[in-house]
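Quick illustration, no need to memorize.
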Amino acid sequence: MGRGVFSIRHKVVIAVVAVYLCMAATIMGSYYFMQRLEGKIAFLEDAGKLEEDVLEIRRFEKNFFLYGDPESLKTALYHLVRARSLLDRNEDTLVTLYSGEKTAQFKQDLVAYGRMLSDCSSLTAQGTLATDPECKADYEARIRKVGTSIADFATNAAQRKRESIKKLMATTVELQVAGLIVVGIGLVAIGGFLVVKVTRPLKLLEQSTTKIAKGEFEPIEALPQEKEVREIFDSFNKMARQLKQREEQLVESKKLASLGTMLAGVAHEVNNPLSNISSSCEILLEEVDDGDKEFQKKVLRKVLEQVDKARIIVLNLLEFSRHKEFCPESLDLKEMIEKTLSLIRGQKPPGVRIVTHIDEGLRIRADRQRIEQAFMNLISNAFQAIEGDGEVIIRAISSDEGFVKVRIQDTGKGIPTEVLPRIFDPFFTTKDVGQGTGLGLFITHDIIVRHRGNIRVESAPGHGTVFCVSIPAEEQSK
């Protein structure tokens, strides 16, 4: 997997800047529309006043023609002056609502309307309208026609401006909602990015650290693209490899440290068969001329027994000291124990019965040859501990701690309490002279520890012995 172009910090900064720019654009857009809305509201106030003045003109115009009141004409002319002033102040805005032509027509209508009202005022002062009904009817018809036109224009102007304000407010709300949605999506995306690119790698790092605490120095295979996390993983893998190398060196150092103790045991154990061989050879030399063949064969068989004993001691010693590659693989525990039992079934005394209670599906990850040797040693010891009839019970279960627990129990004579702390020492044995080398349990203990497991013993004289072995389950060892 190649390295990422941007680091996590760069990506987060880019995402945060993008969200910030989106928020800024939303705020600026809202500010722009609010400014426009403020101007539209200011014009709406003038449009409302224009509509109000035009309606007042029409009202006093009607009062004049209904009641002949000259003051109504003066009031209508007053409102007309106000309407023309409002038109002059907002003419450009009215052009945007309608068109220049319609606005100019409205302006002309106001002038014509004012002129006709002024004419009516003059004719009223002269008494002409009062004495000439046809003239009054003519002016009334013309004034009402123009008045209807200017009233429609003013009312529509106010209505259009209200609709324009509503649209602008709706656009402002839509802009803010869209901005909030985009910002929300951006924050969710940043959160998801941090979960995928930071939280998950940290969780993987935590799991790998837990494995190291259990003694499983496995490097992290899947390296992320992000520079910071990748560098952390690289450092972690380097540490894991160094710890594994140092642990192996420590194991070898412990073996060398125990070499002094072992040498004393080796010297003692090998010296006994050598002494017996030497004595037997001297006897043969003295009796060689007598020609007692049976006696000579007996002595030679004794020599062979002592040679075999010395060879076994040397082989066990070599097995312990030799550095062989550790090759773990996935093993079905039940199948592995059944195979081990088949290999040592010939060592089982006639009166001993084997009982197994092994849960189905238990799997461990172990070196097949070594783990079989460990269980073979434990089961062989159980056979040899029973005098006469008895049972060897093998139980295996899974535990909540991620281990597979195996109990190998015998109904033998048991081990004295004062001897228990020494049973895993090299060359220590409770068997009779010539019956054991004292390396079986020592090698078994070493094998179990190499598999990140542990072994303990429970025993009492007359109550048998139980060896409890814990091996990490397969899913915990990957």
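The mean pLDDT is 76.
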